[in-house]
Structures are given as structure tokens and as C-alpha cells.
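Thread: quick sanity check before group meeting

JM: Hey all, I'm pulling together slides for Thursday and realized we never actually wrote out the predicted structure for the chain we discussed last week. Dropping the sequence here so it's in one place. If anyone has concerns about the input, flag it before I start.
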Amino acid sequence: MATLTKNRKLVLTKMEPEKVYSLAEAAETVKNITTTKFNSSVDVDVRLGVDPRKANQMVRGITTLPHGTGKVKRVLVLCTPDKESEALESGADYVGLDDYVQKIKDGWTDVDVIITMPAVMGKVGALGKILGPRGLMPNPKSGTVTMEIGKAVKEVKAGKIDFKVDKYGIIHASIGKVAFDKNQIVDNARELINTIIKLKPTAAKGTYIKSIFLSSTMSPGLQVDPKSID
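JM (edit): ok, ran it. Output follows.
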């Protein structure tokens, strides 16, 4: 049997493993049980009563967290020259097209979000095998393929995130940092979960929100009562 570390023992004195917490209680507790020396991410895992293998039960969406993610996102805009100034003025970190397409082909993917426009998707689409597995492929459904380049960049910088149910029926998203105060974590988690609720597929039957867990990097997960979200 594995020996509990000092930190693990301390964590267990500050939480009740079998308890179903209110969202506010979970937000406060997750701050107290985080022992990492760095500013850990706060994550939400929502298990849904859907079958992701069926197209009419796929859940995917975007939302803007009211307090941002706590992370400075590096944004690459792949666009035609006439859109470059708009992208730069809106806060994009990297702007260009052919030079960055080649750079990505050579193995560079040191960005968090890539935004592009419909006219150049032919070139960007060729990068699918590189960008797809890293979750960087632009997609109209996530708002990253658009003619409104400036607006898209500002939204990402302000805390816009996209999410998608995985093959196990779970949506996982980072919604802030442990350094956030409790109310900021609550607000961000509520915004995400309410957005997921609004996206319930008509084909989904039975219980839609099966479980919600809140955790931080390397901390235990705390089960959240869905009724406490409102």
C-alpha cells in the first residue's frame, strides 16, 4: 500500500472525499487543498448523459469567462496582408501567412490559439495533421475561422474558451487559477456550466448533467452539486 505524503495527509484533513459540495464550497476548498508551489490551474470536469459517437448528441461550444482564464494566451493569426494591421492592433502575438505556414510545417507550434480567415483555409487545412492533435486547428464553430479577425483576437485575449465533449462523454476545461478569489472561480465555473446546459442536444435522453467535479493541478477532485450552479 502506498504511503501517504505529508502534503497528502494535510489535504485529506481539509476535505471530505465523499461529500457533494456546493459550487461555492468547492471553490473555497480547492484553494485550500492545493499544495503546488506554482499558480495551479482550476479545472472543471462535466460528465454528460450523451453518446458522443452520434452526431446529434455532440456537445461543443464557446464561452467567455467573466474573469478570464488567468493565462496569457499566445495568439497566431494567419491572414492576408490587408488583415495584418487589424490583427496586430487587437493584440495578436504573431501575424503572417506563408512564413508561419512553413514554420509550422517545420515543427513550430509554440502558440495557444490560431485564428484565420476563410480565404486562406486552403493553406491552413494542409496543416491539419500537425495542428489537429494539438488542439490548434482553426474551426468556424469555435470562432477561429472568421473575417472578424480583430474581434476574434480580443475575445481570446479576454478569456474566451472553446470546449468539446470527449469520447467518454466528459467536457474538461480550465476555468481559472488558484490565485483567483473564490467568487471569481464560482463565476467562471457557472458561466461554463450554464453554457453547457444551454447546448443540451434534443436527442439526449435522461439525466444530462451526470456529475461535475472541480479540481486544481494535482489536487483531488471535489464533486459539485449541479443544483448549486444556479
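AS: nice. Strands lie at 20-21, 41-48, 60-64, 75-78, 94-96, 113-116, 160-164, 170-177, 209-216, 222-224. Residues 77 and 95 are 5 Å apart (CA to CA).
JM: adding both to the slides.
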